[in-house]
Specification:
The chain has 401 residues and is α+β, with helices and mostly antiparallel strands. It has three domains: 161 residues, no CATH class; 53 residues, SH3 type barrels, CATH 2.30.30; 141 residues, Alpha-Beta Plaits (2-Layer Sandwich), CATH 3.30.70. Helices cover 57% and strands 12% of the residues. The protein starts with a helix and ends with a helix. It holds the Pfam family MS_channel_2nd. InterPro entries: LSM_dom_sf (IPR010920), MscS_beta-dom_sf (IPR023408), MscS_channel_2nd (IPR006685), YbdG (IPR030192). Its main location: membrane.
């Protein structure tokens, strides 16, 4: 039959054999893709493990099935001595190049599946490996491209590598960001600077939120308004950023806020005012101790005019400290102080510095608001006033009509 086809046209036998070989390869691919791969999917779904599902999601079996037709053609060509040597050589080169690509895509899919399995473990939040996996995938792709070109040209890869030195400068320019990101990824991982789930602030990029992904080239940050900001990985090394992980791990979040008091409302406490302050149970120990201290000081010096006396601002500051010490949601094992800052055009600032017993944002804001609500309401009890700029209602009272 082949001889009869050759009598019609010399290329018909080669074309017939090739069509037959391609038909066999396509049938084998259909069997592999629709029966073998489908069976793997069924087995993976029935197993109690979840790691095997990652290989299904990233299509490892489907990519392996693509190797079957190329392998059949590669073997079948060698079994057909009737084909012209030139045709055989071209088919072998093209088939080899295709199999290299399939192996490349399969290896990258396997690496992605392994990284997906790793990310399902708790340790991945402390040591993200996605950047290293992406770097390895890039290396595999580069090597595969080199072998792919070598297979098509039927030349040794060494010949192509001989000209690699001259291309180094170009490659460094092309892969500059990749090289910088690689170094940054190693430093971020080795020094444990960023993990998935960390709250970071990168003002240069307007990023303020939780890290959702750490890749080779970028770090994705989901801001609190639910927008996504991508930060180049190497910029986290070259520029400064704030990581709030230490606050989360400590279990306490800092309150650092001031109350501005009107300087004209500050005065010494009279005997009646001091007696009135004893109504506050929190101030009993302070007033007793402070009164004894002042009496001893004044008696030792027999001073009458410039005696040391209790002040309303000092008593209020002591009240704030005692109030925070007794507050159930303020940490007692962390820094807790109430201090008076230098007075200025906007009054006398009294700053609270303490830590709440929770780091949850909503709960923290609620605790902070409750503390200042109470202090703002109780300030008049000490004869003090909050300083604020004149409002329209203030001016209306001064100039009625």
């Amino acid at each position: 039959m082949l001889k009869q086809l050759a009598d019609i046209h010399p290329l018909l036998p080669d074309a017939g054999l090739l069509l037959l070989l391609i038909a066999v390869a396509l049938i084998a691919y259909w069997v592999a893709a629709n029966i073998f791969v489908a069976a793997l999917h069924v087995v993976a779904k029935k197993t109690a493990h979840t790691w095997d599902d990652s290989f299904i999601v990233f299509g490892v079996g489907r990519r392996l099935a693509q190797m079957v037709p190329a392998f059949i053609i590669y073997i079948g060509v060698n079994w057909m001595p009737i084909l012209e040597p030139g045709v055989t050589e071209v088919l072998l080169n093209v088939t080899s190049a295709y199999m290299i690509l399939v192996v490349c895509f399969t290896l990258t899919a396997i690496l992605s599946a392994l990284n997906h399995i790793y990310e399902s473990s708790p340790v991945s939040r402390q040591r993200p490996m996605k950047g290293f996996v992406q770097l390895l995938q890039i290396v595999i792709i580069i090597v595969s491209m080199l072998l792919f070109i070598s297979a098509l040209m039927d030349r040794s890869p060494v010949i192509l590598l001989s000209g690699f030195g001259a291309m180094t400068a170009v490659l460094l320019l092309v892969f500059k960001d990749t090289i910088l990101s690689l170094v940054a990824s190693v430093q971020l991982s080795a020094q444990d600077m960023v993990r998935v789930g960390d709250w970071i602030e990168v003002p240069q990029f307007g990023a303020d939120g939780d890290v959702v992904d750490v890749e080779l080239h970028t770090v994705k940050v989901q801001n609190f308004d639910k927008t996504i900001t991508t930060v180049p990985t190497h910029r986290l090394i070259s520029d400064s950023f704030k990581n709030w992980r230490g606050m989360s791990e400590s279990g306490g979040r800092r309150i650092k806020r001031s109350l501005s008091l009107d300087a004209t409302s500050v005065h010494f406490l009279s005997a009646d005012e001091a007696a009135s302050c004893r109504r506050f149970e929190l101030l009993t120990d302070y007033l007793d101790g402070k009164t004894n201290e002042l009496d001893r000081y004044n008696d030792a010096r027999n001073q009458t005019v410039d005696q040391r006396r209790l002040t309303n601002i000092g008593t209020f500051r002591a009240y704030i400290y005692c109030y925070l010490k007794s507050h159930e949601q303020v940490r007692k094992d962390m820094t807790l102080l109430v201090r008076q800052l230098p007075s200025g055009p906007e009054g006398i600032p009294i700053e609270l510095y303490c830590f709440t017993s929770t780091t949850a944002w909503s709960e923290y804001e609620g605790i902070q608001a409750d503390i200042f609500d109470h202090l703002l309401a109780i300030i008049p009890e000490f004869g003090l006033r909050i300083y604020q700029h004149p409002a329209g209602s203030d001016l209306a009272r001064l100039y009625p009509g």
